[in-house]
């Protein structure tokens, strides 16, 4: 079963139709799942067709309808909806989904596979900036120091940060587990104060993980030259899974941090060792990347589940950034600000890609989205990036899928050196 459950886009469409959005979405979702689990595929399809009438642009709903049509043996109808997804450059894995077993072998399916192969062709405009030879490094966060030209990369598996100098030399910026450092998530440089910020969390497959580490997460601040710990702030244990992730630093030295585990946003004020809840978890579904506007009055928030949002830092009011027809901005990971908009790594849909997102002056809507890179041969979990020297540097192969979040096992035999790509802007 690979039927995708639709999210808040359906609720918004229901509101337009004059219905209670939460009740409509919840009812359709619950009834469709019940019908699917009961193998009543005709009823499942009926519910999904109602959903697509409410929200005809939602890719997840389109895919569910395609599944329903295929389960009924309707090859033309199933491929019709899959083709709509391909037009948006989205691949939800229908090629191996058992729901499409009845329509494989048809001329319509052959046509779909040909179009799918075309979509999966790599779009490559980057070059390899550098590699980290250690195959078990498992990189996530990356940041650049605009003063020295050095890069810093955090390891989830080995609980450390490496420094890559402008000359190409690679060395440990901090040792494995130094000062209680855990799995490194994101990095950000404060060039004026000569500081490196790093978020951490307890990943079961990090070296030295203990059961009592569950849910622990926090932020470390290091001296950029020496690697000496300046301060750190850890969330108080509350029995919940926390994962402090993306960082956005303002010119005053304050850090805004997303909690991907619980979906809130925290703030660490300049000089403070205490994290404060800035936005409660109830405001977002799955906070990922963060980026400040040029005037630092707005915080852009990439919600993995619902898309791109703009948060007014003074009022704490948020609004969803509207997108053009055929654009889907869910599944975003890291975002970085550039003149006129954002650079984003999108990993939710396949093929994985890097986007340039252009925004209007008031940050109310997206004016254009361009795929800068997609299906790069080095991709094994592309993740966050950083802007340096008019280029976007990002980790092509985080290899996080090698770690088992339940057992803590890590498939070292399948690991490769980390590749950092340089994408000219």
Please give a structural write-up:
- The chain contains six helices and 24 strands.
- With 425 residues, it is of the alpha+beta class.
- The chain has two domains: 8-119, Tetratricopeptide repeat domain (Serine Threonine Protein Phosphatase 5, Tetratricopeptide repeat); 127-424, TolB, C-terminal domain (Neuraminidase, 6 Propeller), CATH 2.120.10.30.
- It has a four-stranded antiparallel sheet, with no helix packed on it.
- A hairpin with a 5-residue loop joins β14 (287-292) and β15 (298-303).
The number of helical elements comes to 6
Task: Please state how the strands of the largest beta sheet are arranged side by side.
Answer: 1-24-23-22
CATH C-level of the largest domain: Mainly Beta
Task: Indicate the CATH architecture of the largest domain.
Answer: 6 Propeller
Number of strands: 24
Helical fraction equals 10-25%
Low-confidence runs of at least 5 consecutive residues: 5-18
CATH superfamily of the largest domain: TolB, C-terminal domain
How many domains is the backbone divided into? 2
Task: Name its key features.
425 residues, alpha+beta, Serine Threonine Protein Phosphatase 5, Tetratricopeptide repeat, Neuraminidase, four-stranded antiparallel beta sheet, 6 helices
């Amino acid at each position: 079963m690979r039927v995708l459950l639709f999210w808040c886009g359906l609720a918004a469409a229901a509101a337009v139709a004059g219905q209670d959005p939460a009740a409509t979405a919840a009812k359709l979702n619950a009834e469709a799942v019940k019908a699917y689990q009961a193998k009543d595929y005709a009823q499942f399809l009926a519910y999904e067709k109602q959903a697509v009438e409410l929200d005809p642009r939602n890719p997840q709903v389109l895919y569910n309808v395609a599944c329903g049509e295929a389960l009924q043996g309707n090859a033309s109808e199933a491929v019709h909806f899959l083709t709509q997804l391909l037009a948006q450059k989205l691949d939800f894995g229908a090629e191996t989904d058992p729901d499409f077993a009845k329509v494989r072998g048809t001329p319509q399916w052959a046509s779909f596979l040909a179009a799918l192969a075309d979509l999966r062709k790599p779009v490559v405009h980057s070059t390899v900036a550098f590699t980290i030879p250690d195959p078990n490094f498992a990189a996530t966060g990356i940041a650049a120091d605009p003063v020295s030209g050095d890069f810093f990369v955090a390891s989830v598996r080995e609980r450390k940060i490496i420094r890559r100098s402008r000359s190409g030399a690679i060395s440990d910026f901090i040792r494995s587990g130094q000062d209680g450092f855990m799995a490194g998530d994101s990095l950000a440089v404060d060039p004026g104060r000569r500081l490196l910020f790093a978020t951490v969390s307890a990943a079961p497959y990090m070296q030295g993980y203990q059961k009592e580490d569950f849910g622990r997460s926090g932020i470390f601040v290091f001296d950029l030259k020496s690697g000496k710990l300046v301060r750190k702030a850890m969330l108080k244990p509350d029995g919940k899974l926390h994962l402090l992730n993306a960082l956005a630093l303002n010119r005053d030295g304050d850090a805004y941090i997303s909690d991907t585990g619980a979906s809130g946003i925290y703030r660490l004020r300049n000089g403070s060792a205490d994290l404060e809840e800035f936005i409660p978890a109830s405001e977002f579904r799955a906070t990922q990347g963060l980026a400040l506007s040029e005037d630092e009055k707005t915080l852009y928030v990439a919600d993995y589940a619902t898309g791109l949002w703009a948060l007014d830092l003074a009022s704490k009011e948020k609004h969803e950034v509207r997108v053009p027809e055929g654009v889907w901005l869910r599944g975003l990971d890291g975002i970085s600000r550039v003149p006129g908009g954002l650079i984003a790594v999108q990993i939710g849909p396949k093929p994985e890609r890097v986007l340039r997102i252009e925004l209007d002056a008031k940050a109310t809507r997206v004016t254009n989205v361009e795929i800068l890179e997609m299906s790069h041969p080095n991709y094994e979990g592309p993740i966050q990036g950083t802007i340096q020297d008019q280029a976007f540097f990002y980790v092509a192969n985080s290899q996080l899928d090698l770690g088992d979040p339940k057992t803590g096992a890590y498939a070292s035999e399948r690991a490769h050196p980390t590749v950092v790509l340089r994408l000219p802007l």
